[in-house]
Amino acid sequence: MNKALEAVADALGKEKRVLITCHVKPDGDALGCLIATHRALSLLGADSVMYLADAGSVAPEYRWLPGLEQAVSGEAPADAASRTLVAVDCGNAERIGNDELVKAAPRIINIDHHSDNSRFGDLNLVAANASSTAEILYFILRKMGVELTAEMGEALYTGILVDSGRFQYSSATATTFRVAADLIAAGVDHTAIFRRVYETVPLAKTKLLCRLLTNMTVACDGRLAIGILDRSDFEMAGATDSLTEGLVDNLRAIDGVQVAALVYARSAGANEPGHKEQGQPLYRVSLRSSSDKLDVQRIAKGKDGGGHRQASGFTAEGETTDEIIAYLIGSVCPARDKG
Hints:
By secondary structure, this protein is α/β, with parallel strands linked by helices. Helix 2 packs parallel to helix 4 and helix 5 crosses helix 7. The longest helix has 16 residues. The chain is globular, with a radius of gyration of 20 Å.
């Protein structure tokens, strides 16, 4: 892994024109890496541009991140085909949300921590044992000799905080805590970041959570909790898709629940990779488990999704909520529970 880190650090240090991107519906890890990579390469003199396929999907808890407003969204820059594409926190090329951008890229550098990463880059650094892509990027920037600014530190800490499940997942190792400690020592206000991400909740999101808990199904002797949100729930709450970030964790927090699933209907024209947009129902399913021994990545892969052992997801197109619930119960409950 050290050789891979050196290879990527060396390659990034030589780049003069880059386009940095991440997955659609980006979380704190994806956005934190996007910003930190952009700032680092800009400091080294590179012509760097950040790109998001759908900036409107960014959850409110991450919109405060300094520098995010500089990201280009929607159509890729006209000169994208002349820039090296740096993909951060993206398990496969389709998750970038712009197939033409990927095809046109003269070179792709892929930095990620998803174990099911498809290695779609010309240069790939995938560390599945890392808590987050931000943790990997921290070591890349150190090897590049980049002096972390406050903005980079905040971005990296946010990524680690979010993707480690607030440092509760088994992927949060001693190394993760050391990196977080280094960032705090460098001036990151960890208390302020926690409040911005987890304790500044829009009223519409609270109303959406109420709808979610009202429409909850519990199965497998209480080990599986499934929350359903249809478009009518979003309308009644006055909420958008971006407010679903983190809602599934409320289901996992219920005593006895080992696997939690949030099933929500995507809005019309949602930017979902592979969506055919032919009027078929489109549901996004977010999965969380309470233990590394419970592999929800396996459940997601059964529907062409992916992620991590404790946090994964998939898209269900043309299926009813009853069919999705049946699949989840069949995947979680042993045969004796279904009898």
